[in-house]
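During the reporting period, we have paired protein sequences with backbone structure tokens. One record among many follows, to show the layout:
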Amino acid sequence: MRTEVPGELRKLLEEVARQYQLPLNLLQGVVKAESNFNPQAVSPSGALGLMQLMPETARALGVKNPFDPRENLEAGARYLRQMLDLFQGNIDLALAAYNAGPGTVQRYGGIPPYRETQEYIKKVKGIAQGFETWS
């Protein structure tokens, strides 16, 4: 089944994926899993916006308005790119780090034994496969 991206976000996602050299489907999968494409999303744990940035992560990435779609998406994509670089392009480890933090992944020497993180990886990859291509 193909996943649809809301029209107003499609172009922005394409631009940001290109800018940070991310597979478009991976970026779309993260945004769909994190916020269901809702730029105003707030999680019970306090994560904000499209890519559900925690306030301290948003501040560290220089985000002034986490509900601004471009600002949130660029910061989240930059962070995801950092996680991919840190874990030598390993998508599973990068997603685990996006979800549980890079220190946790490093401490466990791989995907942490957290059900939430393990399900998150499967969810994002499953959603990403619903898009037309990985690049």
Remarks:
- The chain has seven helices and no strands.
- The CA atoms of residues 6 and 37 lie 7 Å apart.
